[in-house]
Amino acid sequence: MTTTTVMTNEVTHIGEFPQSKKMGAAEHTAAPKETCGVPFVDAPRMTARNVSVSYEAGAKSAIRNINLDIGEKQVLAMIGPSGCGKSTFLRCLNRMNDTVPGCEVKGEILLDGHNIYAKEQEIVELRSQVGMVFQRPNPFPKSIYDNVAYGPRIHGLVDNKDELDGVIEESLRRAGLWDEVASRLDQPATGLSGGQQQRLCIARSIAIAPEVILMDEPCSALDPIATGIIEDLIEELKENFSIVMVTHSMSQAKRVSDRTAYFHLGDLVELNTTENVFNNPEHKLTRDYISGRFG
């Protein structure tokens, strides 16, 4: 599996290297040859095997030989210092790294047993199955209604307006936003608050009934109240979706995730239940990071 593609300028949001120079002694602690903990689960929704990513030919890999499973109806939180490869790996899961000039992805990623990097894989179809919520809310310059309607329309998921109205109401309800916007669906989405815009983006993502939702620091631009609402929403959404989220907040990872993966300088050091990672980490790098010795 190899991809080298040229498209947008999103590389500014994706490239997590060069590495931070504030890690001190942690830079000299070797990552394990194999991931500590329990990186695999029974009946996974997605699997990654030996996944490596580099942004230039011959350059050092941004992530190396990542092996893990994404469980069904679970939240997997990915933590680690800036530049460790969390977002790079996240964006492999719906091929967002395809948009980065010169990016090369090696290894295998399966969704329900199908290789998402196979030549016959339609990217639009993949991204309807694996949705994405970005770090900052990115509503379209359209009405609230048209933001949520966009996906069902382009994917042909509804046959008439009554069906579309139903999908929009259900999606906004599941995102905890319906009661706040039901009377103004025709108004611009950009007029919503930051927290409301992020919930709108979540509603837009779930309107196309994905199997997996990716979240790249979904609360980093929000205030504590809006963050709490999003975290409660994540807890509800996992009843129907598999969720993979990048977060720099270890307290958030403890609150909302079932499993936690710790990345360090491009390596997946440890993955286990969130309780085990935070209360009984196996590797020194994990212990040092969660205890605040670096990061």
TrEMBL record:
GO terms for cellular component: membrane. It comes from the Bacteria. GO terms for biological process: phosphate ion transmembrane transport. GO terms for molecular function: ATP binding; ATP hydrolysis activity; phosphate transmembrane transporter activity. Keywords: ATP-binding, Nucleotide-binding, Phosphate transport, Transport. Gene3D superfamilies: P-loop containing nucleotide triphosphate hydrolases. Coiled coil: none annotated. InterPro entries: AAA+_ATPase (IPR003593), ABC_transporter-like_ATP-bd (IPR003439), ABC_transporter-like_CS (IPR017871), P-loop_NTPase (IPR027417), PstB-like (IPR005670). Residues 48-290 form the ABC transporter domain. It holds the Pfam family ABC_tran. CDD domains: ABC_PstB_phosphate_transporter (cd03260). This is Phosphate transport system ATP-binding protein.
